[in-house]
Amino acid sequence: MIAFELLLLAYFIYVVGYTLTFAMAGYGYKRRLNGNPGRYSNFAVLIPSYKEDSVILEVARQVTRQDYPQENFQVFIIADSLKADTIKDLKKLPLTVIEVVFESSTKVKSLNHALENIPEGRYDFAVILDADNVMESTFLAKMNALVVQHNYKAVQGQRKPKNKNNNLAFLDGLSEAINNHIYRQGTVALGLSSSISGSGIVFDFKLLKETLSKMNSVGGYDRELELKFIQENFPVYYYKDAVVFDEKVSRSQSFQNQRKRWISSQYIYLAKYFRVGCQALLKGNFTFFNSAVLRNIQLPRLINLGLLTLLMVLSLFLHDYLIFGREIWIALFLLNSFSILISIPKEYYSTKMLKAFFNLPGIFINMVLLQEQ
Predict the structure, then answer these.
(1) What stretches of 180-300 show up as alpha helix (H) in DSSP?
(2) Which pLDDT value is given to residue 308?
(3) H-type alpha helices, 47-124
(4) Which of 49, 113, 121, 362 is the one with CA 20 to 30 A from 174?
(5) For residue 277, is it within any domain?
(6) Residue of higher predicted confidence among 15 and 5
(7) Are residues 135 and 219 in the same domain?
(8) How many C-beta atoms surround the C-beta of residue 34 within 10 A?
(9) What are the residue ranges of helices labelled H in 197-242?
């Protein structure tokens, strides 16, 4: 019993300490001031679309509307299992459709096929979007100014919710906003690599092609891609001012399926890179260790929050049986809550946020059940 208590305490001291450190660091994030870049880079905008007929046409119509010279960017829709009518309508738009067929489809396969079929030397950078993403009109112009002046090879833009139509979508957007503050602003402010969201990212075209060609990730490819870039000494920068709007899940089953995939990929890459990450730490590469081990070894934030709340409540009744009493659990709960609250952007503070919080216990239970499946 004593060993179990010590193990729980050690884990939550780590989780709360990590969260608090990067939440505070997020306020030290400094925007890069960009003047005239001097030249326009050429961008290939890659949009893998697997059976997403319902959204891809509208996204395709909007994605070309950039305040950026038309001759300096091209949109590529990677059509995997789209309907014939959808493909026909896409080909009427000023973009390129690359049709793919796989026995077992993955985003990595789609991207690799597209990169192999795009002419060498034509593009300086590649932008990866999801099939439901919409770039802010200044996205490419801002990214161009950044990468030209600062020579970044991988930059994660800020993803904001395109929809907040119900409590679940609101919470999904809120969760990503917290991630932006802690795992992107906070890590970059401390000189580490930003985590990758999976879309809204700009990569050096040649490096992306070389890196992806060596990958066969089934799920969570973004986690592995970040680690591959760090291994090549190209940590990911986070650019808060370049915004992509992302469709948030609004149905419970979709939310659960999405989280199940994310949790599964987190454990897969933790196991795959744990030893390499520890070796990197011994060699002084804390950036890789943080991305490969420290970030992935934690349970999902909502599970941590729920478990810590339960442990704090239990400590109030069982404090006579605990080694350290209830005070430390109360302190951890308060510090964790503080860390999360200061990571929430001001625009989320509303009565809608309070109403959405009532959904958290049910989501927590569902996520705990996902761990057991």
Answers:
(1) 187-189, 205-212, 221-231, 252-282, 286-289
(2) 94
(3) 53-63, 84-90, 107-117
(4) 49
(5) no
(6) 15
(7) yes
(8) 18
(9) 205-212, 221-231
